[in-house]
Amino acid sequence: MEPAASVPGTQAVARAARLLRLVTGGGSEGLPLQELARRAELSRPTAHRLLSALRAEGLVDQDHDTARWMPGPELYLLGTAAAARYDVTTLARDIVRSLAVRTEESAFLSVRRADETVCLLREEGSFPIRSFVLSEGVRFPLGVASAGLAILAFLPDHDVDAYLERHPELEHAWGRPHAEAPLRARLAETKERGYAINPGLIVEGSWGIGAAVFDREGRPEWALSLTGVEFRFGPDRMRELGRVLLAHAHQLSARIAGQRH
Question: What is the dihedral of CA 207, 180, 250, 25, to 10 degrees?
Answer without folding.
Answer: 60
